[in-house]
Amino acid sequence: MSMDIVIREIECKDYESVAAIWRDVLGILTATDENVIGTYEKMKNDNRYCTFVADINGAVVGFATIVETLAIDHPNGYIKMNGLAVLPAFQRCGIGTMLMGHVEKLAEERNASVIGLASGFQRTGAHRFYEHLGYQKLSFWFRKNVE
Fold first, then answer.
1. pLDDT digit string (tens) for 105-129?
2. DSSP-based three-state secondary structure for 44
């Protein structure tokens, strides 16, 4: 089956589809339509944030969302991947690789020195995918809720 896959920047009309992918693929149950819409509305006027969607005939089947940030050990900045997901029916079709290619191109355009990401322990398939693309597993990521 031939698919016409277009990778493009997110638009307002994509927010609810992306919210569903956050919930259904990544298991982020706090990604309600309202939360996702509110967050993307805040991000859309800040060029440090970027979200690419994979579109097949007008249907969003995946996304990659990033933020560009600074750090002492990366004075040119680095790209932090905040999320990458593809609907299960479209996995292993090259869509994740296409999305990551757009992220890597953006990193090059912005002269960022590194792309970093966190991935849940249970997402072993995702870990193999990232390693296949040349990403190295270097650390654990820790967090603490302060609310």
1. 999 999 998 999 988 888 888 899 9
2. coil
DSSP result, 46-67: -TTEEEEEEEETTEEEEEEEEE
pLDDT 10s digits, 31-41: 999 999 999 99
Please give the structure tokens belonging to residue 91: 């996995």
**How far is residue 8 from each of residues 36, 50, 65, 94, 104, measured CA to CA in Å?**
18, 10, 12, 15, 14
SS3 80: strand
Residue 69 near residue 114 (C-beta atoms within 8 A): no
For β-strands 49-56 and 114-117, DSSP reports them as unpaired
Provide the angle, in degrees to the nearest 10, between the axes of the packed helices 33-43 and 15-24: 120
